[in-house]
Structures are given as C-alpha cells and as structure tokens.
C-alpha cells in the first residue's frame, strides 16, 4: 500500500479550517464530517455545501445543519468551461482552505483546480480500479483486498497524489452492494480522521484566490 502523500493545505493559524464540501447525492460522507465538526476540538468548519443538482439529500443534510448551500448545474451553462468557471466563482465566495469532493459526480476543470486544493475519496486502493465502477471492477478482478483512498484531485481521473488509504477485505459472498457498504463505512472514518491532519500540516499552503 502506498505511503500517505504530502498534505496539501494549511488554514489560517488559530482559526477553524474552512471547508466546502461538494456533493451529488445522499451526502453520507458529508454527514460524517458535519457530525465530527460538532466537536469544537475538531478544528474544521464546513462553511458551505455545493452540488451539481437540486433536490438531493446531501443539500437537505446541510440545510438541517444550518450550513449555506449552492447549486451549479451543468445544464445552466453553455459548456463545461463555463460551468467550471461558475463553480470556481461559487467556491471563491466562501474562501475555503480546502474543498472536499464527497461523492461529487462531475470532473473538475482547471478553473477550479488551479484556484483551490481539492481532495476526493475513492472506493478502491488507487492506482487500482480508478473511475466510476471501482467496486464492480474489484469484484470482477477477483481481488481479496480492496479499500478506499483519499487523494488530491488533479486533471486526471483518480490520478492525483495519494494522501491516505484504508484496506477492506473482500468476502467470497460479497455482492457489489455489500462490499460497497463496507467500504463506505471505512471511507467515512478515513475522511473524518484525515481532515484535521491535512489542515494542521504547517508544510503546505492552500491554493485560495479571490
């Protein structure tokens, strides 16, 4: 398993780290972070939740927690570059130290990635099984161990530097659904554990621009 990669961000000293979470669906990863943030000692504040679609449970979770939300729909823009620019502008309004892609089902473009440090969780031990069907692909390959990865997002598909990984055993009786549920449990714990470490690391600056 690869060693954890370098931490990409640092918040303003003495203040809670400002995090924007991007979601596309049920928001279970988001909920894990929101629950952790209820402890003042956690040192992280979710300052906004963004989505690429309306009417999703992830936005409802944010609203119940009193966290501001925004939606930037691809269909409302002329092309992906225009959408990427609109998303970058929406993120900038919240001045995040870190952007967390938590089940966000859109590929981010250069206008976001050049301005912000973005991390993503993926349900496999990268570089194995990148892409949208990682759990299915792991089962098809017959592996006995898979897991999840926290990595920095770059211009590729699940190719950014690895920050942390956790292993999950594959059972002979596993279906895609049962395996994915076990991975998601570990994935949530990994994200909650790693965020404070990432955001306290003094050796790295945040890409945050007006």
UniProtKB/TrEMBL annotation:
The organism's place on the tree of life at top rank: Bacteria
Q: Per its UniProt record, what InterPro entries does this chain match?
A: Formyl_transf_N, Formyl_transf_N_sf, GART, GART_AS
Q: Which GO terms describe its molecular function?
A: phosphoribosylglycinamide formyltransferase activity
Record flagged with keyword S-adenosyl-L-methionine: no
Q: Where is this site: Raises pKa of active site His?
A: 158
**EC number assigned by the record:** 2.1.2.2
Residues annotated as binding (6R)-10-formyltetrahydrofolate: 80, 105-108, 120
* Family note: Belongs to the GART family.
Catalytic residues? 122 (proton donor)
Describe the function of this protein.
Catalyzes the transfer of a formyl group from 10-formyltetrahydrofolate to 5-phospho-ribosyl-glycinamide (GAR), producing 5-phospho-ribosyl-N-formylglycinamide (FGAR) and tetrahydrofolate.
Q: Which UniProt keywords apply?
A: Purine biosynthesis, Transferase
Under what name is this protein listed?
Phosphoribosylglycinamide formyltransferase
Lineage start: Bacteria, Bacillati, Actinomycetota, Actinomycetes, Micrococcales
Reaction(s) catalysed by this chain, per the record, are: N(1)-(5-phospho-beta-D-ribosyl)glycinamide + (6R)-10-formyltetrahydrofolate = N(2)-formyl-N(1)-(5-phospho-beta-D-ribosyl)glycinamide + (6S)-5,6,7,8-tetrahydrofolate + H(+)
Name the pathway: Purine metabolism; IMP biosynthesis via de novo pathway; N(2)-formyl-N(1)-(5-phospho-D-ribosyl)glycinamide from N(1)-(5-phospho-D-ribosyl)glycinamide (10-formyl THF route): step 1/1
Q: Which residues form the Formyl transferase N-terminal domain?
A: 18-194
Matching entries from CDD domains are given as: FMT_core_GART
UniProt keyword Transferase, yes or no: yes
